[in-house]
Design a protein that fits this description.
Bound molecules: adenosine-5'-triphosphate
Number of domains: 2
Number of strands: 11
Shape: globular
CATH topology of the largest domain: Rossmann fold
Structural class: alpha/beta
Strand content: 25-35%
CATH class of the largest domain: Alpha Beta
Distance between the termini: 43 Å
Helix content: 25-40%
Strand order of the largest sheet: 5-6-7-3-8-9
Number of helices: 9
Pfam families: ABC_tran
Keywords: ATP-binding, Nucleotide-binding, Transport
CATH architecture of the largest domain: 3-Layer(aba) Sandwich
CATH superfamily of the largest domain: P-loop containing nucleotide triphosphate hydrolases
Radius of gyration: 19 Å
GO molecular function, one term: ATP binding
InterPro entries: AAA+_ATPase (IPR003593), ABC_transporter-like_ATP-bd (IPR003439), Metal_Ion_Import_ABC (IPR050153), P-loop_NTPase (IPR027417)
Protein name: ABC transporter, ATP-binding protein
Largest sheet: 6 strands, mixed
Amino acid sequence: MNIIDFENINVGYDTKIILKDITLKIKEKEHWAILGANGSGKSTLMKLIQSEIHPRKTNPYKKEILGKSNYSIFELKKELGIITNDLHNYFAINGSFLTGYITVLSGHYSSVGVFKHQDFSVEQHEKAKETMKYLEIEHLANKLVQEMSTGELRKCIVARALIHDPKAFILDEPTVGLDIKAQINFIKMVQKLSKNCSIILVTHHLEEIFEEIQNVALIHNNTIHKSGKKEDILTSANLSEIFDTNVHINVKNNRYFVEEIY
Ligand SMILES: Nc1ncnc2c1ncn2[C@@H]1O[C@H](COP(=O)(O)OP(=O)(O)OP(=O)(O)O)[C@@H](O)[C@H]1O
């Protein structure tokens, strides 16, 4: 099954087209990085995936997620763990008085916090505990969201999505606001998740593309400029083109990094 199967999609805001002719196929169990400069349209692609914006109907197109062209967004979000900075900020503001445990438990109803009308079974509580243990965040169980660091809250939000055992995680610039140690730590956690589900990592940081990510799509010139196997796509020439600056990249221990900007 394909996680994402898009063909010839044009999408934008009001009358303005931001991304055109989007064709992208991501199969189950594949791991992808989507790379692009600031303003290239990465977040717009995320909004398209989440159906916050819709393809223009002026041309034939295909938009299937998890093999379906018609789906309820509520159900979709259980099958796809979608982690955005908007979600993070929403929790930081509206869920500031929740504990880590309640944040994770609320994933069962995809709500922000738990409410009197919601019943939780013993199994649901067990799942929340097990998920926190798996992500090594048990120590955050009683900590309030407002007392958490950016990295701690982001991990709780990932755990909240993981409670549904999603088929894929889509992470939009997940290390924004994290210092170097927290960034490495977070990417290690995503690497662990990749053992059980697809990872689609939207980023502009080359170093975050961990070994298991074997496919890359580059967004440039309002479209998916190039996509395919990591070794073919992640080249100094391609990155110089999309970031509009001369960069020389290198690979060490299966990790890509920018060696020189000139
Ligand atoms: N709600 C909106 N209404 C109109 N234009 C928008 C809207 N959101 C984004 N845009 C425009 O769409 C283009 C792509 O923006 P988008 O946020 O998708 O880029 P991005 O690659 O995610 O950027 P960044 O790396 O800076 O987060 C930009 O020119 C931006 O100004």
